[in-house]
Protein: Peptidase S45 penicillin amidase
Amino acid sequence: MTVKRLLPFVLSLILIFITTIPMMSATKTEILWDSWGIPHVWANNSENLFKAFGWAQTHSHGNLILRLYGQARGRAAEYWGKDYLTSDQYVRLMGIPTRAQQWYEQQSPQMRSYLDAFAAGINEYVQKYPSRIEEPLKAVLPISAVDILAHFQRVIYFHFLTNPQQVASLQSTELQGGSNGWAIAPSKSKSGQAMLLANPHLPWGDFYLWYEAQLNSPEVNSYGATLVGTPVLGIAFNDHLGWTLTVNPTDGADIYQLTLKDEGYLFEGKVRPFTRETQAIKIRQSNGTYIETSITIKTSIQGVVIAEKEDQAYALRVVGLDQPGTMQQLWQMGQATNLKQFETALKPVQLPLFNILYADRQGNIFYLFNATVPIRSTGDWNYWKKIVPGDTANTLWTEYHPYQDLPRLVNPPTGWLQNTNDPPWSSTYPPVLSPENYPPYLTLPSLEKTGNIFRTQRSIKLLQEAEKLSFEEMIAKKFSSRLEMADRILEYLIPAARFLANPIGIEAAEVLDKWDRQTNADSRGAALFALWALTIEPSGLFSKPWNQQNYLTTPTGIADFNTALAVLEGVAAQIKLLYGRLDVSWGEVVRLRYGDKDLPASGGPGILGCFRVLNLQKAQDERFQVAFGDTYIAAIKFSDPPEAKALMVYGNSTQPGSVHVGDQLELYAQGQLRPVWRTRPQIEAHLELKEEID
Structure:
């Protein structure tokens, strides 16, 4: 064959080779694991994407996920013994397994296939790498899509909206989560581009753990985080927009008092029968045998009966149990490319709680008090937080407020939006939204009753400090450890101690006077103040309570100096006894401990007004360690393409032997975020592992 004839033949082979390479790679699903243990999933369709995401979560958290799914089935005691009996009883009482099956059947065919694929990814991972999963946990296999929905119900509806403590005590309890969130408009941004700060606060374990990932398919290119075991991202951004969530003060669960009569209960003057069901619960014994107990579930028209006392019963009614579309909604939020599409995804109101803060490349910022809110015929917030009468239809809500009824704010003149688990009225300042325009039962009527008043005020002040913020300045402010409460009360406490206290109180006053008001690792005086503030009874502490006219500077003053000084002297004596000196550094007393890491902490309790939130528990060595607080942190500037930095404070894995257990904790201690890698060249430059999923 001559060269002239050979050339077209060679060119045709090259053309075939070039055109078949993308087709060949497009048939594969890849997970690129970067050097921080973050999975970047590339798939040619969304079913394969969900399957790979299930695989990835099992790689990072397999033991934890299987245990959580076993608990969500209400069969954990059957698998692992009596320690899980209380959990199983709660799950069965709340009807989670049965309702999860109903929810699965109510999903769209497309979403069912996605959930099935996520479950398949979990099962196939364990099948391929059985030695990586603890043997007892395999009893829960195979995982099904119903398990995923049961797990989501257990976490969101029965630990966030209500929880076992509320059910046991018949009282409203504190929210099981926190968070900071900021959305910055171009007018407030030095770059002229909108920015977003995502910063959830949750316990550092169990089903509260976040998981960071990137998801790429023809339908989506999202980066963010989700609660472990959930198949869609809950906080995320793409090339066009992003959003974050904060727990909001919403009343998603009500307790009704019923009057018992003739084996039933009174409703509208007549006796109604309970619906009764008895379920068996197996309990595995240490020798491998089983014993069996049972639970009888009684249900009234209001909901499941959670307690009976003499001639009274108490029933729990939880919002949104008839709305199974949260997965679909979150998936569509991640697919949106502008505010209109994003709001279209939100309008079904399937996610039963969480404030949403949003920013986009067009420069829009947006806030929504997102919640499934019953349409109630009577009562205000305080009325519904107590036990309500169940003998009348006047208190029995059956419908929810539509999207247009919820507090919502777009592009306020201030150029910023914030939320720190406060009600909508402080989403920007001066306030734009007013409680007068909404039902009195919607949420807390003012900032005063939130329990987070100082953190909210600190957040607002951080945003007000600068006319415009750079991306780097926004990140630096996230790591602010100043205690707002200290600024509010030390000007009264220090002079009083110098004038009225015993010698140790006078010494404490000198330490507090020299303190920098921060909770940095090297701050001296922070331990003294924080332990004093956490010991003293907050009710009635301040002589001037919060008021609307002094929004950011009240409460203030000291109402009872004798008590304040007595507590200060007692705490000072205790600190000196335990640590040998009164001006012990914060980092010596408070430790960041996760996996094999043990580092001095910077950051403090949110209730004291710290924006860098670390809530503490006592450790065995007379120190305090972080049990709750900053978890996933993401800062995004909506340039083209977006610039982002993030941190999973405790690392992106809990599997034994993983190098990513606690591997990001040192960055957190230093007040740093890591770059987010989203393009293949960036990821491949920091590649730890590449997997191909069939």
The domain at 178-251+321-478 is CATH 3.60.20.10 (Glutamine Phosphoribosylpyrophosphate, subunit 1, domain 1). The longest strand covers residues 275-284. The first helix runs from residue 3 to 26. The CA atoms of residues 468 and 682 lie 30 Å apart.
